[in-house]
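Hi X.,

You mentioned you wanted examples for the new student's onboarding notes, showing what a folding record looks like when two proteins sit in one file. Here is a clean example. The first protein comes first, with its sequence line followed by its C-alpha cells.
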Amino acid sequence: MKTFPVFALLLASLAGHAETPQQIGATYGAEAAAQQAGFTPSARRGEILFRQRFAHNDKMPACTSCHTDNPLHAGQHVVTGKTIRPLAVATNGERFSDPAKVEKWFGRNCREVVGRACTPAEKADFVAYMTEVR
C-alpha cells in the first residue's frame, strides 16, 4: 500500500489549519480512488453506512446509537451521556474542518461501532453524506 505514507504526510501537513469538508472528503476520495479505480464518493452510500447496524457492539450497533437518526440534530453518547454536536455540516459548521480531528474520530468510532478501521472509500462517502444532508 504505497499510498498510505503519502496520505499520512498529507494529513499531517493539513492538520495545522482548517480545511473544508469538501477538501477533507476529496482527500479520502483520492486515497480510495488510488485503491479502487473509478471510485467516486457517494452521499447515498454514506447515508447507508450512517444507518447500518453492525454486530460488533451491543451498546453502539450503529452511528445512530449516539448521533440520532437525524444527523442535523445533536446526539448523546450512549455510555457517557455526553452531548454530541450534530454531525451534519449544515447545522455544525465546524464539523469535518480539522483533518486530525476527523481522522481521530473516524478511528475511534469505526473501531467501536463497525469493529474495524473504516476504509478511505467509507470515509469519503460518509463525509459526502454529512456535507449534503439538509
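Then the second protein repeats the pattern, sequence line and then C-alpha cells:
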Amino acid sequence: MSVPGLDIRPLRIPATMAEDDGSFAEMVAVRNETEAAALGSYDLAPDPAGLLIEYHDRWFDRRIWVARVDGRIVGRLFVELPLEEGARIAVVEVEVHPDWRRRGIGTALAEIGEAAAADAGRFTLQAWPVHSPGASGGRRLTPPTGFGTLPADDAGVAFQLRRGWSLEQIYRISRVDLRESAARTEDGLRRGREGAGDAYDVVTWPGATPEEWQDDLALLYSRMLTDAPMAALTVDPEEWTAERVRDTDARAEQGGYLLLTAAARHRATGRLVAFTNLYLPADRTRPGDQGDTLVLKEHRGHRLGLLVKAALHRAVAEHSPETTAICTFNAEENRYMLDVNEALGFVPIGYQGVWQKQLQA
C-alpha cells in the first residue's frame, strides 16, 4: 500500500543537541510515543540528549532512517553494526507510530534495513522491540526457551512474523518503587552480606569508574555476552578495554546521566567479580535505567547479585534522593536475577521480544 507524500531518508545525527535542526528531537518523540503505546507508560522514554550519546559510541556503526509524511516523522528504522573484527550480526529495528500502521511504512523501512545489513556483509539480523502484554486468554507465542509468552495479536509480533523473523527469547521489563521497597533494600543488603561472608566486600561509586577498577570492569563487560542467558542467539564477542570503559563513562556524563555502580570485590585477589550499574537521567525524578548486572560464573552461589543490587539501591538514596523508581530488563529464563529483583520489590510492567532472522548470503 502506497502512502501519498511518504519520504524515507537517512537522518543526520548531530554532534550535540545544540546542532540539531529539530529532526533528531522529533525522531526521539516518535520513538518514545511508539514504545509507550506498547508499554502503557513513558517509564523507558529517554530524552533526546540521553539517546544521542548512544549514536556516538565508536564501537558501533549506528544509523537512523526516518519516514516522513508531509514533512512529519511517522516512523523510524534503526540499524546497528558492531565494529569488532569478525562481527556477524546487525540489529535492525522498525518503529511506526500507531496512528500510521498498516499502510506499508514499516515494510518499506524494513526492506531498507535488511538491504543495509546485507550490504555491510551482515546476514544475521536481531531486533529487541517492546511489545504489549496483551489481553488474557488470547493466543500467545512462546519462544524455544519455553520461558514467557507474547500476544500473537500484538502489532509488533505480527509484523515480525510476517517479515520472517523468529522469536528466540523474551525479556521481562520490571519496575521498583524505591520508597515502598526501602525495607527490602536493607534486607537484601543483610542477606547479601551473609552470603558473601568474609570472602567478598562491596564497593560503590558515582560517575566515572576509578582507574583501579577499569580493567576489572572491562572484563565484566566482556563477559556479559558469554555468562548471561542468550538463548540460541548468534553472539558476537565484545572486546572491552579500560579505554572503552572510560569512553562509556564519559558519554554517560555528556548525555546528562549520573552513572552509579556497585561491585563485589573478591578479597583474596582484590579483583571485582560482580557488578551492576544504573543510569539516572538528567531529570532525576524520572525512573533510573538499569544498565548491566553480572556475577562471574566462577563466583556464583554467594548472593553477590543480591548484594550489589541492594547496594546500588542504597546508593540511589544517597546520591539522587529525588529518584524514586528503577526499570530493568531480565531474560525470562534468568530465574536467579528475577528472584533477586522480586526480593527487592520489582514488579513486571511489560515485555521485550528478542527476534532473529537469517538473510540469504
